[in-house]
Write a structure and sequence with these properties.
Layout lengths: L2 H59 L1 H10 L6 H12 L3 H21 L1
Helix pairs in contact: 2-4, 3-4
């Protein structure tokens, strides 16, 4: 075999080795991307679960406080009583206003914490 034939064989083997190496790197990049996506999904699931757990813990811990607010508030489904209560709160009746502000503030804080 001549020198030019050997050179072509060596070049071909070099190209083949480079191609295999490039293919290996491409597979590794694809696997790394997939693993990163799976990790992100797992983190998002974990965050959502922790938020739900902390919300439930807060609701359980604040149950006594909610009962105190509800002692001063009318039933939600009694429209006439709610209207009268809101009118008293607007007319600056201290007990009505404080209970209503505390009750609504509690639910606003909870909504902001879970959103």
């Amino acid at each position: 075999m001549s020198d030019s034939t050997w050179n072509m064989v060596i070049e071909f083997v070099g190209l083949l080795v480079n191609g295999v190496g490039l293919g290996f790197v491409a597979v590794q990049v694809a696997l790394a991307r997939r693993q990163a996506r799976e990790t992100q999904v797992a983190r998002e699931r974990d965050l959502l679960l922790r938020r739900k757990e902390s919300t439930m813990t807060h609701l359980i811990d604040a149950d006594d406080q909610m009962r105190k607010y509800q002692d001063h508030l009318p039933d939600d489904l009694d429209a006439a009583a709610v209207t009268a209560y809101v009118a008293r709160a607007i007319d600056n009746e201290v007990t009505a206003r404080e209970a209503l502000v505390g009750y609504l503030g509690y639910w606003e804080t909870l909504a902001l914490g879970t959103s």
